[in-house]
């Protein structure tokens, strides 16, 4: 079902259009200002936005600019008055899908809406924080994105380092070139040279064909080295040599090749400590760390908690084919009060699970939120809650298996956990 956001300060006209769209089988939400529109877009997935050109607090051109900045791809149809053609042209240049002259003819509007592909459902894949700490982080991203210096992203697990790495790439002049992420923890030491620099056929036993390494694949673009603290010492040495000499040599090749790569690295480890303990090379650290961006904990971004929960609820609804209608009051205050030690990842998984447990058309209740950690006070009540959470987790897993016809790979994906974690939990709950 298509969900349409109507941004119109003429209440009568807005209701008329809304009622008519509902009769055509669509869902609508009406707002009267650009400020409310931004809030609605950040928290919910819309199929289409129908916006009046002039609103009391701003005009729709600024909304289009904001959407472009957020990479929000929801198609927008602008409604203009007679004599506003120039603005309509600007709107199209800013990415509006089309414009309609007022008074709007319902059949023409319907034709336009039907013409929009379901795939354009327009959900932004990322929420952009509005809290002071998140804003500061985005300001830094903006600052360094085009500077082509190497960036080290530091932050606890689940704070969104991979998201920021991608954002830096997208905002840089390399955006049309490859973005290549690599989890350094998965690069085996004896294959590291071949992984990074590639090899020629026959370079070693088992090299049955030529292979391009990550340096070649990422050439011209961005190489994202995730979990950099997991690189073995030997791998650090070969990487450092290539970075210093600005050239690399594939295994079995006699030639060396220059490369043009922007490096973004991430870690949740204390690298200074690793250096002091001789586990991480200081010279490599400096090469990778021409600029540091620290990602805030979710607990430090209190204003983002509820909008982010709404965002994940809509995402889960869309992906799981569910219709949870927001959170009830107690659920909202529990979401706000919780410390979120697992940060954004934990929030995403908690909300996803709660949506699975919530009957369609109902609000998510506090009881469906299975937080991973309790503010342990050692009392029986705390232990009871922990027990409830285990029951909720079990129920969640059973629902996910039901939903996917017992396909464990799909169920793990739905739950936002790895397959091995799912197997572990199946064993724990005797669900095998
Ligand atoms: N701004 C955001 N909007 C929506 N989802 C987000 C956002 N930031 C992170 N996520 C989601 O949260 C999860 C964790 O993010 P990510 O993998 O980037 O964290 P991380 O800091 O790299 O974690 P780790 O250090 O454990 O690898 C992912 O599922 C990601 O899609």
Task: Describe the protein in words.
The chain has 432 residues and is of the alpha/beta class. It contains 18 helices and 14 strands. The strands form 4 sheets. Strands 2-1-3-4-5 form a 5-stranded parallel β-sheet, with helices on both faces. Helix 15 packs across helix 16 and helix 16 crosses helix 17. The longest helix has 24 residues. It is globular and about 75 Å long. The two termini are 36 Å apart. The relative contact order is 0.08. Adenosine-5'-triphosphate binds next to helix 7 and helix 15. It holds the Pfam family Sigma54_activat. It comes from Bacteroides faecis.
In short:
Keywords: ATP-binding, Nucleotide-binding, Phosphoprotein, Transcription, Transcription regulation. With 432 residues, this protein is of the alpha/beta class.
Q: Span from first to last CA? A: 36 Å
The helicity comes to: 40-55%
Number of strands: 14
H/I helix tally: 18
Task: Determine Rg (CA atoms, Å).
Answer: 25 Å
What hetero molecules are bound to the protein chains? adenosine-5'-triphosphate
The CATH homologous superfamily of the largest domain is named: P-loop containing nucleotide triphosphate hydrolases
SSE layout:
Elements: E1 3-7, H1 11-23, E2 27-31, H2 34-43, E3 48-52, H3 60-69, E4 76-80, H4 85-93, E5 98-101, H5 106-114, H6 132-145, E6 151-154, H7 161-171, E7 179-183, H8 192-197, E8 198-199, E9 211-212, H9 214-217, E10 222-226, H10 233-245, E11 247-248, E12 257-258, E13 262-267, H11 271-276, H12 282-288, E14 291-294, H13 302-320, H14 329-337, H15 343-357, H16 380-403, H17 408-415, H18 419-428
Parallel strand pairs: 1-2, 1-3, 3-4, 4-5, 6-13, 6-14, 7-10, 10-13
Antiparallel strand pairs: 8-9, 11-12
The structure holds adenosine-5'-triphosphate.
């Amino acid at each position: 079902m298509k969900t349409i956001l109507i941004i119109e300060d003429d209440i009568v006209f807005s209701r008329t259009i809304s009622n008519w769209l509902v009769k055509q089988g669509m869902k609508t939400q009406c707002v009267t200002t650009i400020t409310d529109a931004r809030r609605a877009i950040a928290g919910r997935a819309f199929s289409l936005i129908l916006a009046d050109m002039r609103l009391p607090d701003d005009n729709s051109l600024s909304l289009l600019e904001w959407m472009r900045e957020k990479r929000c791809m929801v198609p927008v149809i602008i409604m203009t008055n007679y004599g506003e053609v120039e603005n309509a042209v600007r709107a199209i240049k800013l990415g509006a899908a089309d414009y309609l002259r007022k008074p709007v003819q319902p059949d023409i509007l319907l034709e336009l809406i039907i013409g929009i592909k379901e795939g354009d459902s327009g959900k932004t894949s990322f929420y952009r924080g509005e809290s002071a700490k998140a804003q500061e982080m985005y300001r830094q991203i903006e600052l360094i994105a085009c500077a082509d210096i190497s960036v080290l992203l530091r932050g606890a697990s689940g704070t969104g380092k991979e998201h920021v790495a991608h954002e830096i790439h997208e905002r840089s002049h390399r955006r049309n070139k490859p973005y290549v992420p690599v989890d350094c923890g998965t690069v085996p030491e004896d294959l590291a040279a071949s992984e990074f620099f590639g090899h020629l056929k026959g370079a070693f036993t088992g090299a049955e064909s030529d292979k391009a390494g990550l340096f070649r694949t990422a050439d011209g673009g961005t190489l994202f080295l995730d979990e950099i603290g997991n690189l073995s010492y030997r791998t650090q040495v070969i990487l450092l040599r290539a970075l210093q000499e600005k050239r690399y040599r594939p295994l079995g090749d006699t030639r060396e090749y220059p490369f043009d790569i922007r490096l973004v690295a991430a870690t949740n480890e204390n690298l200074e400590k690793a250096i002091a303990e001789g586990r991480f090379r200081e010279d490599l650290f400096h090469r990778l760390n021409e600029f540091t961006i620290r990602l805030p904990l979710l607990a430090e971004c209190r204003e983002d908690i509820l909008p982010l929960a709404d965002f994940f609820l809509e995402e889960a609804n869309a992906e799981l084919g569910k219709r949870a209608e927001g959170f009830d009051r107690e659920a909202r205050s529990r979401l706000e009060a919780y410390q979120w030690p697992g940060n954004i990842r934990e929030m995403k998984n908690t909300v996803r699970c709660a949506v699975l447990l919530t009957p369609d058309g109902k609000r998510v209740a506090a009881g469906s939120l299975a937080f991973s950690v309790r503010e342990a006070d050692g009392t029986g009540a705390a232990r009871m809650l922990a027990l409830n959470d285990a029951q909720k987790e079990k129920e969640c897993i059973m629902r996910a298996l039901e939903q996917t016809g017992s396909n464990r790979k799909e169920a793990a994906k739905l739950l936002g956990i790895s397959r091995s974690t799912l197997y572990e939990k199946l064993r724990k709950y005797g669900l095998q």
